[in-house]
Amino acid sequence: MKTVLAIALALTAAPLAAASLVPAPKADVPAAAGLQTAILAGGCFWGTEAVFEHVKGVRNVVSGYAGGSAADATYAKVSTERTGHAEVIRIVYDPRQVSYGTLLRIYFSAAHDPTQVNRQGPDTGPSYRSAIFPQNAAQRRTAQAYIAQLGAAKTFARPIATKIETGGFYPAEAHHQDFMRRNPGHPYIVAHDVPKVAALKRMFPALYR
To answer: Residue 157 — φ and ψ, nearest 5°?
Structure first.
């Protein structure tokens, strides 16, 4: 996604179908005292990070890797597509302001295309897969129920590819953090991630900041 070839592909690839607001989850994680953590994979972490940084109630978003070992948690190794890692974001949020289910609704509506298998847009390979890494049993139940709900309702024209996975979180290199904020004119950002933030603002105006 950061190579010259990837940038060229990003600018020439056919655009994805317009994002659309999906139904709210019927079940959610009960609000608890204190900050909570969510870990989501939805393609290049530049864009997913940018989306959730604009959500009210989100205190911090960090790009990183999950699904593999600590020894393999570097961009150079993950890019080989042999480590088992996915590019993910770690979201620290206040559940009194935004629920886990609402974060998942944003994830499925605006942050990525959950029907793509091992890719997002021009980025291909298992590290760009759609996956949720629940941090507790309540998150796991909510994520599983929501995927089943959206699937049963045939919300998407194609099957949902999102998997429920386990694995520790490892922060990405410093130059990947806050990438869109620091590089708003980057060709990849303009082509693929600015539209995601715009979709968030359009679909969730009360939550956008």
So the answer is: -70, -25
CA atoms within 13 A on the CB side of 21: 11
| Domain count along the chain | 1
**Digit-coded pLDDT (tens) for 20-41:** 999 999 999 999 889 999 999 9
109 catalytic? Reply is no
Catalytic residue among 22, 44, 55, 89: 44
In a domain, 158, yes or no: yes
In a domain, 90, yes or no: yes
Identify the bridge partners of residue 42 per DSSP, sorted by sequence position. Answer: 130
> Would residue 12 count as lying in a domain?
no
Domain with 90, as residue range(s), is 27-196
Q: Does the residue 17 lie in any domain?
A: no
Query: Does residue 34 sit in helix, strand or coil?
Result: coil
pLDDT at 19: 77
Q: What does the pLDDT look like over 128-157, one tens digit per residue? A: 999 999 999 999 999 999 999 999 999 999
